[in-house]
Structures are given as C-alpha cells and as structure tokens.
Design brief:
about 500 residues; alpha+beta; BirA Bifunctional Protein, domain 2; Rossmann fold; 2 domains; eight-stranded mixed β-sheet; five-stranded mixed β-sheet; 19 helices; about 40% helix; about 20% strand; RNA-binding
Length: about 500
RNA sequence: GCAGCCGUAGCUCAGCUGGUUAGAGCGCUAGAUUGUGGAUCUAGAGGUCCCCCGUUCGAUCCGGGGCGGCUGUACCA
C-alpha cells in the first residue's frame, strides 16, 4: 500500500466566505423572507425566479480577463466554450428576462425575487461570497413615483422585520444632484469617468472617514492606519471645499426637514440644468412621502448617499441601521447598508437598444440577519423540538414505532430514537435535542400496560434545586406513568401545559 | 489587490532560551451511582504543533517561501 495514498484525507472545511446554516438560522431566514414577501405582495409585486447562473455577457461587461478570470464573479466555461457566470445580483438577470420577454410582459412590469447570489470578493463581517438578497423592481416606469414607492416599501419591510421606527433610516439622494454639483464646480469628466467615480466614492465614505478623510480622498490621497495609501481625485482646494460643504449640508441640524435640505442644495447645483432636474424629482418624491405619511423618522434626504456603482442614473437610496452593532468580543462592527437601490434606466437598453426606465430595491437578507444575530434580536428557536420515544428494547421496535405513528397522526412532532446507545445516552440525546418529552417504555411499563412520560422541561427546572444525585434519581423528576392507551392524550396535555408556561406562541 | 497582526486537540489557550511518550479546562464517547437527561467520580477517543524548503546531530520552536485567519484599506459591475 502506498504511503501517501494511505495517509491522504481531505480536510473538512467550508470554503471561505461561505457558511453552513444550522436549523435556527435557516428558520430565522425563512421567517425574514416570509415577512418581506408579505410586504412586496401587498404592494402588488409578483414573484419571478430566474436561474442561478447566466451567460457571462448577459450579466454585464464582466467577461473573465486573462489575469484574473474569476475577479468579482465566479465564472466557468460550458462545453460549447461559452462563458457562464454565477449571478452576482438579481437585477442583471431581471434585465435579461425583461429583454427576452419584453413583448409579452405587462408594462410597467413589477416583480420580486429572492435567492442566493455570489461574489468573489474578500469576505468580512456581514459580508459573504454567497448571500441572500430579496429584490423588488418596477420596469418601464419613468416617473419618480416608482422610486418613492421603493423607499416607502423599504421602510415597511424593515419594520415588518421587527426593526422599530427610529432605529433605521431610508436615505435617499439623486445622482442628478451630484452631476449638477460637479458641473457647477467645473470638474471635467462624464458620468462614469475615473474622476467622476473617484469623487463619488470619496463622498460615499463621509460616513466612515469624516470630513478630513473625504478631503484627502478628493485631493492628494489618503493613507490609512495600516500604512496603505489610496490615490485621491486630485481636485483643487476650492473644488474640495465646494464638495465637502455640499456633503455636510445634508447631515446634522440642517437635515431636520426634507424641504430645507433641498433648499440648501439649490445653491449647490447653481444653474446646472441636470442638477435642477434632480432637485425637482426629489421635491416630487418628498410630496409623495408626506402625502403617504412617511416622515423624517423613516425617510430622509442625505447628501453622502451616492452609491458607488456606475449604472445608477437618478434617485438612489439605501437603508441603514442606526444602532451600534458589536461582535461577540464587544468590538463595534461596521456593517454596510442592509438594503439599497435606485434608478437604472440603461440596464435593459443593453439588450434592447431602447431605453427602458427601471427602479428597484434590494434587501441584503444575509447581512441584515448577521446584524440582528449580533444584536440578539434574531428570534431563533420557537419551533418545538420533537417528542422522543426511547427504544430500550430492540425486540419491541414495532411497539415503539406504533407510538410514534400515533403521535404523528395527532399532529405532534415525534421521533424514534434511532441511535445505538443505552437509556442514559438516549435521554441525553433527547435533552440535547431540546425535546419537551421523552416517552419511556421498558419491561416494567410493558407488563403493566403503561408508558412513562418524562417532562424534560420541568425536570430541567427541578434539577436546579437538587444537588444530591441519589435524590435526583430517586425522585425520578417530573415523570408520570400513564396507560399506554392514553399516550396521545397525555402527551397532548403535557405539551399544552408547556405552552401555557412559555406564554407565547402562534 | 495592498498593509499590519496571527496560525499548538472540536473550542479557549498553555508550553518548549532547539532535545525521547506535546499538556490543561471545556466539549465529546463510555463506565460507576437499581432502568433516568442535571451534579459528582473514573476511564477513553481525538494532534503531520498550518504546509514546503533551509540551518542543525536533532525543528512545534530559528530563517525563507507558500497557504489560511483576523483587522484596516481598496474593489463591490
């Protein structure tokens, strides 16, 4: 036997940035998805599902390049040599779907979609290489009423998820205001140019780096605490001042009213036509928010919300949690926004050649879940574990099977102990499982036509007061012998008692 | 991608200024305590000391390279 063959063992490990989800996490996520879905449905969106991967050219300009074939997206070649890529969001597949089925769809077309997406990026807290998003989009809707709806629906979703009003904020802005500002202060470069994007991204970091950091990024560049240097946009001092003044006009005291913020921005955009247009759109959105009763405690206009992505063309928005999140060790964790969106009028155009205005909102379910988990606000474990029927006597498996079947037929979660260990281990198993009741039928019970029901929840309460082992065992805490024929009724009664003690359920 | 710190049991870590069989606590598996989850006691399993190369009589420890993790930063279409 070859030595290397003999000693080879694959290392059991989950790939970085991916994770396994235990029962509690799966249930928590499903609950979140159900609540979001309910809101989306109420707003009149219909479900759509598209596949997990697409032809790479349909997803965007991101064909694998030679140096780093998997940069950003995970991609691979089909047997006909065509490049496929795992979807990195749900918007690009939507654009493909709309373009492919354009004539058959009602317009506007409103759909929601959830599912995993994949990005080949460096993972971090609340940042994974596979994560779940939940999107709603309205396609072929030119007016900003569609954008305003997204903002309001985003607020509704967060509240439906149990985040209290005041603990989150939907922050909106308009790319056109930014365009107006840059036009006024004479920054050369079309939207999408390097300088334009560098300025945008610098503004985007105001939240994190403050005025000083943004000034450096707009000017010569910034060195971070690890000594790494980030190249700046190279603006002149007066340009920098203009940009930073604008950014600070939308925060703090000045942001006390959406209308006041817009008034302040009139000077920012000056005579710029595109800037004026942006402000008019925001004013229209404000009117809609106000009419629908969405005040500043839910939606605000915010100058440093610009979104780093190139494809947004109008209103942009994101949702942020306002409370501080700390990790297990107590260090503050910086989560990005838990939802974001905006208007992308050019995405379908890539396929159709005609402009199809669209806007959408995407909730980062995985990130939100990670944040709520660290906050201890993720309600896990309200699913009752099964009743466990112990199998003490291999010759009587049929009898045990009959009990489990009766319990299941009565709608009670129940399982046979299927391991190979003795009674003590079986109870330990039931305990670890969180089982409310263990059903015990040994020889003694069988001859008497009884079963013993052990109330594991009550027993665990009692054990806190018993130190002595003899007393603990002799007392046979919280168990009762009942006639075998009354198994289902007695178990049902015991479960009902648990429910009333626990007080909540439903 | 760039920079800093870090890699010893499932987890949290100790240890060795380079020397035979690498340890603890918790966890896990079992035994004792009448056929009973907690507690207590006993035993057992579990390690290529991240990997490779070099220095050395000898490397978990020293040097180089790699890989992985964390943090910051960048990127996030």
């Amino acid at each position: 036997m070859n030595k290397s063959q003999k000693s080879f063992r694959p290392k059991a490990r989950v790939p970085k940035g991916l994770r396994d989800m235990s029962a509690g996490m799966v249930r928590a996520e499903e609950r979140m998805l159900a609540r979001i879905r309910e809101v989306y449905e109420r707003y009149g969106f219909d479900p759509l599902e598209t596949s997990a991967f697409e032809y790479a050219d349909a997803l965007g300009k991101f064909l694998p390049d030679e140096d780093r074939p998997n940069e950003g997206v995970f991609s691979f070649q089909d047997d006909d040599e065509q490049w496929l890529a795992l979807r990195y969001d749900l918007t690009a597949p939507l654009a493909r779907y709309v373009a492919e089925n354009y004539d058959a769809l009602p317009k506007p077309f409103r759909r929601y979609q959830t599912g995993p997406v994949w990005r080949n990026e460096k993972p971090g807290p609340g940042r994974f290489r596979q994560f779940t998003q939940f999107d709603a989009d309205t396609v072929a809707a030119p007016g900003v009423a569609a954008d305003a709806e997204m903002c309001m629906m985003g607020a509704d979703c967060l509240e439906a998820l149990g985040i209290p009003r005041g603990s989150y904020r939907i922050r909106a802005n308009n790319r056109k205001v930014l365009d107006g500002l840059l036009e006024r202060i004479g920054i050369a470069g079309e939207p999408g140019s390097t300088t334009y994007m560098t300025v945008l991204r610098a503004i985007d970091k105001y939240d994190r780096l403050g005025r000083k950091g943004v000034e450096l990024l707009l000017g010569p560049g910034r060195k971070d605490e690890s000594g790494d240097f980030t190249k700046g946009a190279g603006l002149s001092p007066s340009q920098i001042t203009a940009v930073v003044d604008y950014v600070e006009s939308g925060v703090g005291e000045g942001a006390s009213d959406r209308k006041l913020v817009l008034d302040g921005w009139r000077n920012v955009v000056g005579e710029s036509a595109i800037g004026r247009e942006g402000l008019d759109e925001l004013a229209e959105m404000d009117a809609l928010f106000t009419a629908a009763g969405y005040g500043l405690d839910r939606i605000e206009f915010n100058s440093w919300i610009v979104r780093g992505l190139g494809y947004y063309t109008g209103p942009v928005f994101e949702s942020d949690l306002l409370f501080e999140v700390k990790d297990e060790v107590g260090n503050p964790v910086r989560f990005g926004s838990v939802g974001s969106g905006g208007r992308y009028d050019g995405l379908v155009e890539r396929f159709k050649g005609v402009k199809v205005p669209a806007t959408g909102f995407s909730i980062g379910v995985s990130r939100l879940q990670a944040a709520l988990e660290l906050l201890g606000k993720l309600d896990v474990e309200d699913v009752l574990a099964p009743v466990v029927v112990l199998t003490l006597d291999a010759a009587n498996m049929a009898g045990y099977q009959a009990m489990v079947s009766e319990l299941r037929a009565a709608g009670i979660r129940a399982e046979l102990y299927l391991g190979g260990s003795g009674m003590k281990a079986q109870l330990k198993y039931a305990d670890k499982r969180g089982a409310p009741i263990a059903v015990i039928e040994g020889e003694d019970e069988r001859t008497k036509g009884e079963v013993t029901l052990k109330d594991l929840i009550l027993g665990s309460e009692m054990s806190k007061e018993i130190e002595d082992n003899a007393a603990w065992r002799e007392g046979q805490p919280a168990q009762v012998a009942v006639p075998r024929a009354r198994l289902v009724e007695e178990v049902t009664a015991m479960l009902a008692r648990h429910r009333s003690v626990r007080g909540h359920h439903g």
